[in-house]
Write a structure and sequence with these properties.
67 residues; mainly alpha; 1 helix; rod-shaped
Length: 67
């Protein structure tokens, strides 16, 4: 057994424990779900807006079937 009382210091803003990583990933997931809900609500509100050519005026890029 060592009598040293040396504690390893980490850089400010960095965390080196599993609990922090779990909390951080959970926070990212909740934020992503909240943004998805806001986008879905926005698109739903304006789904009936059309251009003069009859195309939807507001679309979500990158989420349509591949051409």
């Amino acid at each position: 057994m060592s009598n040293d009382s040396v504690t390893r210091l980490i850089q400010p803003g960095t965390f080196d424990d599993q609990l922090t990583e779990v909390l951080r990933s959970g926070a990212y997931a909740l934020l992503a779900q909240a943004i998805e809900a806001e986008v879905a609500d926005f698109l739903g509100r304006y789904a009936d807006l059309k251009t003069s050519q009859g195309h939807r005026r507001i679309v979500r890029h990158g989420h349509l079937p591949e051409r």
